[in-house]
């Protein structure tokens, strides 16, 4: 069982995320998946995650610009299934285009964060994110 | 005549085809075609048959010949032949001898009655002379001569055939006034050649009769006409129609006209062109003169030959012109298609619009420019003409040979433009092609003053008299050009279609280009986002890893290596900022303006707060004065003032006490804001590059910047149809001013 699921196909961003999570030195668990379809399988218990019951992550951090299944499509699929309908999904993207922000919200994200582009700033941001989503945010547990 | 009210159309109303009289040199009888019963006779009939007219009315036609040596049945048989064949023309004239005298009997049927008319026969020997003349006339027409020669010779032949002392060829103008264009006369007579006659001399209904009766003789204008008597049963409201009668009496008005002219016999032969009256051969004799039927037929034949020749020649002439215009029009069309450039094709190619007509000048008003060819009015006059035309009801073309009468200012340039032919290319854009013809000052010599005088008769009634003086009366006709022919008008109307086709095609091409531009913009839009995203991602990696290196391995690096890493980090910062600004710049060009009233006080204070946060380590004061609201796109205005005030903050960084003053004021039609600082300023000589993308001024190098900020500002101002200007002195500061119109059209 993981607290944070980060869906990111850029290995550098994934690496920086991992480094920062470790550096936070907090008890949260996390995992990084590099494809949208795998993440959907994981969240919905399909494909190779079939018959491997696990609880949902407390936060899904989602890059929008993914090869294959796009971030927006991941959100759409997650929102169409009862189990994952209310799982917190935060878009985490380089783009600050109003159009991208709008389409992410339309698909059903809970928040939209533009990647800060700096190590320190990203670290600060992740720390805040974990505080809020893993500790302060009240969730609906659908099992 | 006296019973009619007086007005200048009196002559036009005179019912000349039912005057109820015939000329006294002949005799008339009208019979019913089915019963041959006599229903009308001329009062003088007793002279011919020795029976009183009243005794003949209601009798069978045989009764007519009862007192003569000719058996009545001869006439009946003749009528039977005519009725059977349903044709009389081939039988006319019938030579009949009554009581030792030879007469020509001319029969025709009209409006349900058969009319029999006897008139004197002439000398039989003339028939041979006439045959010769006709043969000569035919040769004449066949040989190619000028029209004037042809008419002159025709006049001479007609004079020989009928023996009058004056034969004129009289041509009608477009307004039906006539001009003597050929004349053959006895030497002692005063010449009428070249004289003009007003249209009212030959009223409309007379012209109609001239088209039906091609030959018309008045043998003796001084004789008393003979009245037509009708059967007692005949309805009085149906007088005998003499339209086709050869003896029809002459209207008293016309008799008076002839008398005033000193003419006692007259004959006219119609000249027709395409079914319309083109002119008349008008013959005058000072004494009574009878022309017998065969001679009249010979004269008529000559005139018909001439009519045919006219038609042929005029057609040839028109065809030649039309061919020329068509060929030139074809060339212009090819030039239009080939160059796709209306101006070049029409006025800057071997064949121009000037070759399309007989005009001496032409002008093209297109795309707000005036192009002149040949003799034309001034450019200003042409522009004024293009302004005037849309106010007329001209829709496709306008044609006039008297422009100053339609458009008084044209009097100023009548020497080059008394005649105008114009085609409309676009009424909205005031685009036209004009052709000009110069004024032709015409000296028109009228045969007497053409304005008929109204006189008061002894009984106090007013009436219009034929003129009593035919002395030459000269009128100068001004403001008039030679007319535009149908070939000219046809050619330019076709040209208009050709031009419009090209213009429409170009408009469609522009529309297609617009669509493609729209697609290109959308692609560029997507491209901008992709580029900014794809560039920013590796840039973030570079920066993050540099930071990680500094943070985790900094202790192991010497100060030089640390400084180098810091440079990498700073460079990524600048690049991020550049990418962001480029994106803004491209967005400002395309996103829709959503104009609203912007609360400037709130907006400026927000910007001040943000700038003051980053400037807390130095002395910076931002004063906000008057803040009138503006109508603008709030996002763009925020960007604009953030850039302007941000620039001021940046370029005052070295100033010990930096002061920025922002102030707004409203004028009648705009709101002007100025942002003034006491920073480094710049040399106004470099001001021309101020708003160029990526251009930075020399003394700004030490400050961070991308060279995009002011370009964005300029673009925003342009989108709002506003203005931006500035004043600066090196080391004394800079003032930027921006003006927003009170109402913005997106």
TrEMBL record, chain A:
Residues the record lists as 4-aspartylphosphate modifications: 63
Record key words, sorted: Phosphoprotein
Gene3D superfamilies in alphabetical order: 3.40.50.2300
CDD domains: REC_Rcp-like
The organism's place on the tree of life at top rank: Bacteria
One Pfam short name: Response_reg
Start and end residues of each Response regulatory domain: 3-130
GO biological process entries: phosphorelay signal transduction system
PROSITE patterns for this protein: RESPONSE_REGULATORY
Entry protein name: Response regulator
UniProtKB/TrEMBL annotation, chain B:
GO molecular function, one term: phosphorelay sensor kinase activity
Keywords: Chromophore, Kinase, Phosphoprotein, Photoreceptor protein, Receptor, Sensory transduction, Transferase
Positions of the Histidine kinase domain: 530-744
SMART domains reported in the protein's UniProt record: GAF, HATPase_c, HisKA
Record flagged with keyword Flavoprotein: no
CDD domains, per the entry: HisKA
SUPFAM superfamilies in the record: ATPase domain of HSP90 chaperone/DNA topoisomerase II/histidine kinase, GAF domain-like, Homodimeric domain of signal transducing histidine kinase, PYP-like sensor domain (PAS domain)
Residue stretches making up the Phytochrome chromophore attachment site domain: 146-304
Pfam families per UniProt: GAF, HATPase_c, HisKA, PAS_2, PHY
Alphabetical list of Gene3D superfamilies matching this protein: 1.10.287.130, 3.30.450.270, 3.30.450.40, Histidine kinase-like ATPase, C-terminal domain, PAS domain
Top-rank EC class of the record's enzyme: transferase
InterPro entries: BphY/WalK/GraS-like, GAF, GAF-like_dom_sf, HATPase_C_sf, HATPase_dom, His_kinase_dom, HisK_dim/P_dom, HisK_dim/P_sf
Catalytic reaction list: ATP + protein L-histidine = ADP + protein N-phospho-L-histidine
Keyword Transferase set for record: yes
One record GO biological process: detection of visible light
Domain of life per record: Bacteria
Record-listed E.C. numbers: 2.7.13.3
Entry's family note: In the N-terminal section; belongs to the phytochrome family.
Stated name of the protein: histidine kinase
Organism classification: Bacteria, Pseudomonadati, Bacteroidota, Cytophagia, Cytophagales
